[in-house]
Amino acid sequence: MSAICAWCNAPKKSGPLCPDCGADYAKAEAIKNKGKAEPASAPIEEEIELLIEEENQIPVKDPVFEKQVCLFALPSMLAFALMVQVTGFLAGMQRMFFGMPIHELGHAITGWLCGFNSIPTLWKTLIPENRGYLSSVALLVGLFVLTRYALKNKRSGWLVAVVLVLLVQFYGTFVITLSKADMLITMGGDAMGLILATVLIGIFYAGKETQLYKGSLRWGFLGVGSAAFMNMYLPWWNKDMSAIGYGLTGGIPTDSWKMINIHLWDWDSLFTVHITIGITCMMILTMAYFLGIRQANIWIIEKNKQDRLSKLNASCI
Fold this sequence. Notes:
With about 325 residues, the protein is mostly helical. The chain has helices spanning about 25-35, 40-55, 65-85, 90-115, 135-150, 155-175, 180-200, 210-215, 215-235, 240-245, 255-260, 265-315; strands at about 120, 125, 250, 250-255. It has a two-stranded antiparallel ribbon with strand order 1-2. It has a two-stranded antiparallel sheet with strand order 3-4.
């Protein structure tokens, strides 16, 4: 017998099966030399069936297609959202239907983390003057559900996220003053909004075993997140004070006006904070992008191995 596997030409290792393609060395050699092999013994057939069963754990239907969408979906969505902002065509609709809801939700989430019963609407987030803690209890319940899911499905990353949120919630609810909390909630419109938009985009690369993938919800989250991110971030990147808004809107002070006149920030500090958050979010998305492609490549290799094992199993019957 030769020193390489007759099925995939990889160097032979110890054991009856090739670790690279799963083929039985002796049978692969016989098939190559004689065109057929003697019937496999029951243990070998069972081992091949076990390998095929393990390979069927690939969570996506078509790994090649998954790699293609991982390559092009995120850059395309972000580029389109950026084009809308730069050209101004449909920019108002992008702001109304995507930017503002995520912006107001950013205010509300920051309020929840600080112990306020915030109520987001399309154009304004209702913030009580004092902490109420009802939102904190609701948030704890949600984190408990997420913890159960993470433990059940062995998702250590989700457990890390739960711990981080708990620490932030404790600090925001029990440590900082009302004035500091009001400042964070005011800034949280775009600051937390950018983070929330990043989470929505990142969902595209996660949850392949969930309805996010099976029901194509990830495409909607990708579109909403991309549009909201560019709508909120580009004015800060361009340092465009007119686009950011300063003064009164419907008789209500804008966030930037409150930050400068009530909380005594200056424009340079506001630009620095939001630009830094945006760059950090883009770095995280870049990591998710390449990890998604890497995972798709692994699934392609596993799928090819599965196909070879199926052919080998068929030849042994």
